[in-house]
Write a structure and sequence with these properties.
Elements (H helix, E strand, L loop, with lengths): L15 E3 L6 E5 L10 E6 L1 H7 L3 H6 L1 E2 L2 E10 L5 E6 L3 E4 L2 E4 H11 L7 E7 L6 E7 L5 H15 L6 E5 L13 H5 L3
Parallel strand pairs: 10-11
Antiparallel strand pairs: 1-6, 2-3, 3-5, 4-5, 5-6, 7-8, 9-10
């Protein structure tokens, strides 16, 4: 289970993608495999899915669980049955034995700091330190040494992460994919 993700769906935190249409089924893969307001991987079932993977048997088999397609997205249902996407399975990292979603860290820190006025992104990579991870915060801004240290301390205090795993990187432009998501693969090229 992912800790440090919202325990309840708050409509102000994430946008709902709605409810399943008549010929589609949606479930969350978590401990209970039910609509129970706990996060889980979004699984979908319906005839529209097969068309994408029809001629890719190996890919199809790797994405199927109990006849449901595993999307790789992490979601929650609210009490009305509306689905909220809160992250990607690929963007969940272990830090000190706990699981963190980079999207959650970004949103949480944006609400807690003055960075909501600046474009920034977080990347977590495996590290050889005692927590097993390094955190890289990319900011679209020219920062001097004093501001970098101030931001590191803010982040460290807020999330209770040690300073030595936090890195602030000034970047000209945060890269985005064609569908508007942060392009974390491109960000990695700046490490």
């Amino acid at each position: 289970q992912i800790i440090n993700m919202p325990g309840e769906v708050n409509n102000n935190d994430f946008d709902s993608v709605g409810i399943a249409s008549r010929n589609k089924k949606i479930k969350l893969l978590n401990n209970s495999f039910e609509k129970n307001n706990k996060e889980g991987e979004i699984l979908i079932k319906g005839s529209h899915i097969a068309n994408t993977y029809l001629f890719a048997d190996k890919l199809w088999n790797s994405k199927i669980y109990n006849e449901y397609f595993c999307t790789g997205d992490i979601g929650l249902f609210n009490d009305k049955g509306e689905l909220f996407i809160v992250g990607r399975k690929d963007n969940i990292s272990q830090i000190g034995g706990k699981s963190y979603s980079t999207e959650w860290l970004e949103k949480e820190w944006s609400n807690a700091s003055n960075l909501h006025k600046k474009q920034y992104a977080i990347l977590i990579s495996k590290g050889d330190n005692y927590l097993g991870a390094n955190i890289y915060i990319f900011i679209e801004d020219k920062l001097d040494f004093k501001n970098i240290n101030k931001l590191k301390k803010e982040f460290s205090l807020y999330f209770k992460f040690p300073l030595e795993i936090i890195n602030i990187i000034s970047i000209k432009k945060i890269p985005f994919t064609n569908n508007g998501k942060i392009n974390r693969k491109e960000l990695q090229k700046n490490l």
